[in-house]
Amino acid sequence: MDGTLLRIVKDRMFRAGVTVLSFCMLLPLLLILAYITRNGISAINWEFLVNLPAPVGESGGGISNALVGTVILVALASVLAVPVGIATGIFLSEYRKGRLAYAVRLCTEVLQGIPSIVIGIIAYAWVVIPMGKFSALSGGVALGIMMLPVVIRSTEETLKLIPESLREASLALGVPYYKTILRVILPAALGGITTGILISIARIAGETAPLLFTAFGSPFMETSILKPLNSLPLLIFNYATSPYQDWHTLAWGASFVLILMVLTLNFIAKVVTGRWKVKF
Amino acid sequence: MTFGRKTDGSGRPGAALVAAETAFTRILFIVAIFVVLLLAAVFITLLIGSRESLSGIGLGFLYGRTWDPVSSEFGALPFLVGTILTSFLALAISLPFSVAIAVFLGEYFREGWVSAFLRSAIDLLAGIPSVIYGFWGLFVLVPLVRSFQMQIGVPPFGVGVFTSSLVLAIMIVPYSAALGREVIQLVPSDLKEAALSMGATRAEVIWKVILPYARSGIFAGVLLSLGRALGETMAVTMVIGNSNYIPKGIFSPANTMASLIANEFAEATEPIYVSSLVEIGLLLFVVTTVVNIIGRHVIKKTTVEV
Question: Contact A229/A222 with Cβ under 8 angstroms?
Fold first, then answer.
């Protein structure tokens, strides 16, 4: 009797337990996707996508202003975050050691960890108060601040992977330093950078908290960035927490569209831009 | 083509080229400093925004138990309790699952289609927007919890600390699972092989060699999950019951710091009200920053910089 049988039993049970626990997480995932698909698909039709939200009790409401709003907010955030983010990523990969690089990296990590509602407060203080009203611009600023650290990090990581020989070859041929970066290194890194941008867009497209008191939401179709506007997550939040049944149905439909959008973006980011990566 | 002449005939770079080079380097430095200034500006804005309550209410803000905007009484204790309760309960619920996934993907099934499938599923979980988690929690979890509460004889709110901890736990599993998997994969094979060659079973190798070795990395993943849980707003707001009193137990409704701001900021009128809410935001900022920095510091010490 050396207890070996017990040890083998424990080994098998441990492995079974780990497997069961791991796949347990699939349960909420499937439940969420199933619920959204089942309740959301019935709400989707052409009017749903092109109509404005209707007052309670009237049928035929839609999410068109939320769709347009999400696109405008994402575009605004990208315009603010992408150039600064890529430039900072280039800085971090060029000046790898050094005190400023260390400080920038630390600040990037801290910025990434700030809760989204706090960023909403910041955008409120920086844009809403001086402007005197809610606007798409403030929402874009909030989402841009959230997007920035992700773009910085993915740019830096991608640039790190590019071998020194590429840069040295370019410099040895007499290409000026700035052109080496802009015309040789950056295009090689384009795949990874685009992936980072798409992933961060998928993340901010689903954000609600920073928009609660910046873009604020609106029942109308707005295209001006100086006015408040609606977005998909805002609409879902407002409709889901309302007491009206037909608004709940609209919220399910909007959730379905939002999840579809986020999944597609993530899919494109990983699969398609993976093919653009220059292989060394 | 090149703009400006590359050299001016003497072999040295021409003026236009030098100007372009310096401009490029300067822009990089300016952008880098901008990021640092951005963070400083965030912190300063929060400080300035909360100056009325910092000076007016002072330290009592942290242990005041009443939050009553009507009579201008602002105490943050109910929300500190709510935040800590939900976050740590969520952490406790999620821990077995994240460690299991980390071990499963890091040791048993490193490659292959099972691994790819589970990894995609976990990535999917991480990608679902938080408002959708809240929506699903409100319409699916809350009725389930309500009937569970009726069975065990507790007031059947349905919403409350317990429900939001459940939703939070699902949301934070991907973070500690991903990090745990990475550190488990980094455990050197010769350690594992030495244990196996002495007759240890696979489970014993995991328990006695891998997990102790990966301990700090897993801890870092836990801290990162905690940071995420502390700041999570929308899902919590929709299922926590929005009560501004200290929760009596895990089945009571409550409010967290984040959900309080989400609920009341847009309607706060007097300066002291807004300032108190901004101070809560400042508290949230400081706590999540500290947790995140400690977490990333631990990661740096355990992973090798390539």
Answer: yes
Name every chain A residue with its beta carbon within 8 A of the beta carbon of B101. 21-22, 25
Name the residue facing A10 among B29, B203, B238 (closest C-beta). B203
Q: Mind telling me how many Å the CA of B60 is from chain A's nearest CA?
A: 22
Specify the number of domains making up chain A.
1
Give exposure, B239-255, as e/b (b: 16+ Cβ within 10 Å).
bbbbbbbbbeebbbbbb
Question: Are B35 and A108 within 8 A, CB to CB?
Answer: yes
Which range of residues forms the domain containing residue A159?
Answer: 63-231
Report if residue B103 sits inside a domain: yes
SS3 category, B67: strand
Evaluated on CA atoms B146, B150, B152, B154, the torsion sign reads positive
User: Residue B205's domain is classified under what CATH number?
Assistant: 1.10.3720.10
Residue to test with chain B: of A84, A122, A155, most B Cβ within 10 A? A122
Q: In Å, how far from its chain's centre is CA A78?
A: 11
Domain boundaries, position B272: 78-302
Other beta carbons within 10 Å of A30? 11
Q: Report the sign of the C-alpha dihedral through residues A217, A143, B127, A262, in that order.
A: positive
Interface of A with B in 96-115 (CB under 8 A): 100-101, 103-104, 106-115
Q: Is residue B148 part of a domain?
A: yes
Per-position pLDDT tens, chain A of length 280: 578 888 899 999 999 999 999 888 889 999 999 999 988 888 777 777 777 777 777 776 778 888 889 999 999 999 999 999 999 999 999 888 888 999 999 999 999 999 999 999 999 999 998 988 888 999 999 999 999 999 999 999 999 888 889 989 999 998 888 888 888 888 888 888 988 999 999 999 999 999 998 888 888 887 888 888 889 999 999 999 888 888 888 889 899 999 999 999 988 888 866 666 655 5
Residue A81 lies in a domain: yes
Residue B201 C-alpha from the chain's centroid? 36
Would you give the DSSP letter of residue B72? T
Do residue A11 and residue B108 have CB atoms under 8 angstroms apart?
no
The CATH code of the domain that includes A142 is: 1.10.3720.10
CB within 8 Å: A21 and B101: yes
Angle B223-B225-B227 from CA coordinates, rounded to 5°:
70
Q: Is A126 inside a domain boundary?
A: yes
Does A117 contact B233 at a Cβ distance shorter than 8 Å?
Answer: yes
Count of domains in chain B?
1
Nearest to B62 by CA among B43, B39, B81: B81
Amino acid at B212: P
- Is B59 within the bounds of a domain? no
Domain-located, residue B137: yes
